[in-house]
């Protein structure tokens, strides 16, 4: 693989896998876990603390969530800035009100899309807090350390994702495949 190909479209799975593994290793060596849900909670805690610090002391839901270090906020910022920079460098940056696949299946209503994304994000946030972590923490950190709970959780996520995708987009693969052909390197 040429170095120039790193800046064109998506990374090859092997490069992305080694990079993700290196990130997990560095975090573990620093005594941290890669967990995006904790970063979002850290941002919310910092904002709430500015306006109403007593609320955090009296609220169990936000007040006792793990992963509220400042490094997690920096990681979240790095993810946002890094993904934007990568999309700009690879010339793949696009702004869509409604993704084509969603529009083909459910219509072009931006408000419907926003409502579904908000509801899904809210459910994921609640699930991450109730379950003690997010998919990033379970997949990257938990599975790489051979945590039985994370392996079971990851299998559950994959199973639920496959069922959900089939329920939402059943029999749409041929149509989508024609619009966006898959190219293997």
From TrEMBL:
Keyword annotations: Cell inner membrane, Cell membrane, Membrane, Transmembrane, Transmembrane helix, Transport
Topology in the lipid bilayer: Multi-pass membrane protein
TM stretches of this protein: 12-29, 71-89, 110-128, 148-170
Cellular compartments annotated: Cell inner membrane
Protein name as annotated: Sulphur transport domain-containing protein
Family from the record: Belongs to the TsuA/YedE (TC 9.B.102) family.
Organism field: Candidatus Magnetominusculus xianensis
